[in-house]
Amino acid sequence: MKIKNINGTSQTTCVCGSWLKHWEKFSGQTATYCPVTGCLKKDLVGAHVQKANGSDDKWYIYPLCNAHNQSTGVLEVSDSYKLVSANKKETCEK
Ligand SMILES: [Zn+2]
Ligand SMILES: [Zn+2]
User: Distance from the CA of 41 to the center of ligand 2, in angstroms?
Assistant: First the structure.
């Protein structure tokens, strides 16, 4: 799938402690490496992303390495990780 990183979102983290923990909690998954094609770095953060295709402009959390969390433009990622809503009202602060 294709996603794009949302830059400049230094949004304070949620009650989960970090956005990566937020992602782990609501995806039920554990990220071991950056899912961007050809990357595989392990310094992961919970990045704010949007789907690059279609009309869905909601914000999601997705694990990306530090370098890709700084990137702009569309990223091709493997489908092995789930997108988790970044909306606290729908997740941890429900
Ligand atoms: Zn949370
Ligand atoms: Zn990466």
Answer: 5
